[in-house]
């Protein structure tokens, strides 16, 4: 069977690439090795984790803030089985939606493991047995990533777990030991902390969410500490053992002292690794980079083999679903002869804890390293009337602007609904707005987004009104 484009992998990058190719009139096929579309994001990542985050936040509010709001409730209990059931229903609805979109766009779908026979031929080993081959002028690799394992600490899927198993626990842990203070770990850690678990975070670096602006990490740690989470920063995990229902984790402190932690679950969340095995890349002469995992591409996201592209987690850059989506669209339009673009500096990063964390552009640390001259404006949510009304006063908005031109260089937020608020900053920076531009735009009152306006005013000659 001959196609214009074959996409390997149906995560956010893959299915978006396939749909855009079909929209552009290209005969398209997509291959997925699992029984459902959507990849990690829809099945065991973004979507299910947000479902649990929302459910746990409802419970936390019922037990901690309802009384102050004048809502009296009695005997609030966690029904973890129902919580997981609802999460699974959300996943089923979302992945089912992708199946519908494949049919709507007349994209041929294949279930099985796709690998290169040659640069135009893909062999599909069906999960139901048997093999078949399809060919195309262009092939897009969108195989995503999987949780990274520590070589000295193997997961067993029962007591030493990854994010995948953490989404399906049948009980609230008594003590969850969380290895890794990044996005995935903190989101899942906060879920179980809200539900009553003791959560201890062990992080090798000196701050949580270390790739984001340092201000955000400090503020988030304050908020999560209020939730009861404990943090061991600059600590190195050396091993873990399981005996019955008990997990013992050994850790080295910054001073070289041995620390022993005991819990009933240990969640290993130290990042993700590109999924590039089994593709048969050696058959077409593609050599992997970055410790033998990432596929190298040029500015058009094309590999060293003409007509073969790679997108998403399997190439360099942030491992974000929306980055993969943009790259999927980019490659589809490139194949169709268009000239799309992606500004990688303006792809936002988000942590869906509560308060939420969101960031776009340069961090203050990056500007200092570059030697850039910049100015800073901040505004705390405790000074926001809307935040006081909803009892969401933790956090702040921070705007970094060029000292001479006033162009916004970075926006960093921690607070209520920042995952949505960051979009205004992305739009502004895409059009190279100044801090004064944002300060002069009318923001509805009372809203959380006024904090962005105030931070921009603070960066413009310290003109913030409400602080």
From TrEMBL:
FAD/NAD(P)-binding domain sequence ranges: 3-328
InterPro entries documented for this protein: Class-I_Pyr_Nuc-Dis_Oxidored, FAD/NAD-bd_sf, FAD/NAD-binding_dom, FAD/NAD-linked_Rdtase_dimer_sf, Lipoamide_DH, Pyr_nuc-diS_OxRdtase, Pyr_nucl-diS_OxRdtase_dimer, Pyr_OxRdtase_I_AS
Gene Ontology molecular function: dihydrolipoyl dehydrogenase (NADH) activity
Enzyme Commission numbers on file: 1.8.1.4
A Pfam family of this chain: Pyr_redox_dim
Superkingdom, natural source: Bacteria
Cofactor: FAD
The reaction(s) this protein catalyses: N(6)-[(R)-dihydrolipoyl]-L-lysyl-[protein] + NAD(+) = N(6)-[(R)-lipoyl]-L-lysyl-[protein] + NADH + H(+)
Gene3D superfamilies, per database record: 3.30.390.30, FAD/NAD(P)-binding domain
Key words, A-Z: Disulfide bond, FAD, Flavoprotein, NAD, Oxidoreductase, Redox-active center
Keyword NAD: yes
Domain named Pyridine nucleotide-disulphide oxidoreductase dimerisation: residues: 347-456
Additional detail: The active site is a redox-active disulfide bond.
Protein's name according to its UniProt entry: Dihydrolipoyl dehydrogenase
Top-level taxonomy: Bacteria, Pseudomonadati, Bacteroidota, Sphingobacteriia, Sphingobacteriales
């Amino acid at each position: 069977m001959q196609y214009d484009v074959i996409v390997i992998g149906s995560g956010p990058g893959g299915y978006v690439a396939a749909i855009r190719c079909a929209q552009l009139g290209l005969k398209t096929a997509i291959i997925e090795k699992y029984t459902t579309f959507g990849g990690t994001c829809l099945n065991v990542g973004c979507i299910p984790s947000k479902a649990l985050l929302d459910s746990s936040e409802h419970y936390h509010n019922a037990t901690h803030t309802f009384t102050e709001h004048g809502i009296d409730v009695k005997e609030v209990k966690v029904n973890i089985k129902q919580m997981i059931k609802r999460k699974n229903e959300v996943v089923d609805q979302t992945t089912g939606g992708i199946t519908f979109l494949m049919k709507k766009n007349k994209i041929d779908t294949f279930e099985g493991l796709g690998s290169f026979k040659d640069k135009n031929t893909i062999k599909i080993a069906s999960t139901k047995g048997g093999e078949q081959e399809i060919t195309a002028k262009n092939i897009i690799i969108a195989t995503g990533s999987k949780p990274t394992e520590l070589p000295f600490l193997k997961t067993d899927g029962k007591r030493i777990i990854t994010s995948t198993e953490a989404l399906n626990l049948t009980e609230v842990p008594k003590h969850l030991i969380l290895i890794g203070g990044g996005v995935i770990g903190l989101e899942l850690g906060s879920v179980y902390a809200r539900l009553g678990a003791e959560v201890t975070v062990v992080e090798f670096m000196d701050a949580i969410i270390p790739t984001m602006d340092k201000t955000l990490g400090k503020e988030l740690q304050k908020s999560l500490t209020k939730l009861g989470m404990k943090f061991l920063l600059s600590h190195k995990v050396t091993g873990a053992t399981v005996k019955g229902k008990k997990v013992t984790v050994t850790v080295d402190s910054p001073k070289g002292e041995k620390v022993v932690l005991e819990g009933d679950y240990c969640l290993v969340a130290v990042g993700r690794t590109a999924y590039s095995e089994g593709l048969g890349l050696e058959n077409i002469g593609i050599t992997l980079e970055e410790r033998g995992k990432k596929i190298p591409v040029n500015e058009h996201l094309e590999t060293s083999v003409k007509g073969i592209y790679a997108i998403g987690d399997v190439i360099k850059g942030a491992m974000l679903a929306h980055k993969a989506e943009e790259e999927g669209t980019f490659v589809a339009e490139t194949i169709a002869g268009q000239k799309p673009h992606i500004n990688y500096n303006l792809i936002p990063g988000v942590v869906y804890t509560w308060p939420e964390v969101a960031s776009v552009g340069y961090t203050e640390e990056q500007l200092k390293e570059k030697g850039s001259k910049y100015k800073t404006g901040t505004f705390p949510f405790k000074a926001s009337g809307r935040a006081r009304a909803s009892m969401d006063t933790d956090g702040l908005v921070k705007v970094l602007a060029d000292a001479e031109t006033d162009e916004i260089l970075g926006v960093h937020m921690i607070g209520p609904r920042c995952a949505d608020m960051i979009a205004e900053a992305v739009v502004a920076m895409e059009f190279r707005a100044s801090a004064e531009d944002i300060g002069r735009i009318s923001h509805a009152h009372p809203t959380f987004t006024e904090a962005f306006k105030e931070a921009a005013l603070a960066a413009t000659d310290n003109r913030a009104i409400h602080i």
